[in-house]
UniProtKB/TrEMBL annotation:
It comes from the Eukaryota. The gene is Fbxw2. Gene3D superfamilies: 1.20.1280.50, YVTN repeat-like/Quinoprotein amine dehydrogenase (2.130.10.10). It comes from Mus musculus. PROSITE patterns: FBOX, WD_REPEATS_1, WD_REPEATS_2, WD_REPEATS_REGION. This is Fbxw2 protein. The lineage of its organism: Eukaryota, Metazoa, Chordata, Craniata, Vertebrata. Residues 54-101 form the F-box domain. WD repeats lie at residues 144-183.
Length: 245
């Protein structure tokens, strides 16, 4: 068949095909497929994927793509970023999506920052830190070994940690090195506070005592509580205030 005659025939067939019902169209296609050889079937197979699996993020306007993406949760969006470079580019460029994801994690968002990659990185860092917290890997840990009984009291200040124990001692530790700076004999401590020269302890014996780090001597001893022990106190310029249970 000549090319011109073929085009005329194809136009007529197309008009007729479009006038058929869906069922008739399906039957027509089934019949044509049954008449096709290997070359035609291979051609059909190669083109079906393109026709059926259209990339909507490429075809839709960017604003409409952003609107649809807002309905997905962040974890799904991160998975979608792995589909292709195009998907990753479009999803990463949606500022509102990543700002909302950060807000849902409890972040205070500065809406004036419209850098989508910035908010995506903030979200990813937050998720990583939450995963590390869940797996107990968010912080480096170390053990301070020195007490021979249970530790009841802790107080941290300026890189130093004070511990009070049931072994009738209190120790001051350098957290960065793990070394014990001072160790003195005390009563059983339920609460501790310290400065460079002295230690103040609240005890299960309902007393509050002051101690010198350098000598280990008790310089003051306060009695008066009758509860289960002194568990908290604070000091102003001239006085100590304590609280017992």
């Amino acid at each position: 068949m000549e090319r011109k005659d073929f085009e005329t025939w194809l136009d007529n067939i197309s008009v007729t095909f479009l006038s058929l019902t869906d069922l008739q169209k399906n039957e027509t296609l089934d019949h044509l497929i049954s008449l096709s050889g290997a070359v035609q079937l291979r051609h059909l197979s190669n083109n079906l994927e393109t026709l059926l699996k259209r990339d909507f993020l490429k075809l839709l306007p960017l604003e409409l793509s952003f609107y649809l993406l807002k309905w997905l949760d962040p974890q799904t969006l991160l998975t979608c970023c792995l589909v292709s470079k195009q998907w990753n580019k479009v999803i990463s460029a949606c500022t509102e999506v990543w700002q909302t994801a950060c807000k849902n994690l409890g972040w205070q968002i500065d809406d004036s920052v419209q850098d989508s990659l910035h908010w995506k990185k903030v979200y990813l860092k937050a998720i990583l830190r939450m995963k590390q917290l869940e797996d107990h890997e968010a912080f480096e840990t170390s053990s301070l070994i020195g007490h021979s009984a249970r530790v009841y009291a802790l107080y941290y200040k300026d890189g130093l940690l004070c511990t009070g124990s049931d072994d009738l001692s209190a120790k001051l530790w350098d957290v960065s090195t793990g070394q014990c700076v001072y160790g003195i004999q005390t009563h059983t401590s339920a609460a501790v506070k310290f400065d460079e020269q002295k230690l103040v302890t609240g005890s299960f014996d309902n007393t509050v005592a002051c101690w010198e780090w350098s000598s280990g001597a008790r310089t003051q001893h306060f009695r008066g509580h009758t509860g289960a022990g002194v568990f908290s106190f604070f000091k102003n310029l001239y006085s100590y205030f304590s609280h017992a249970l």
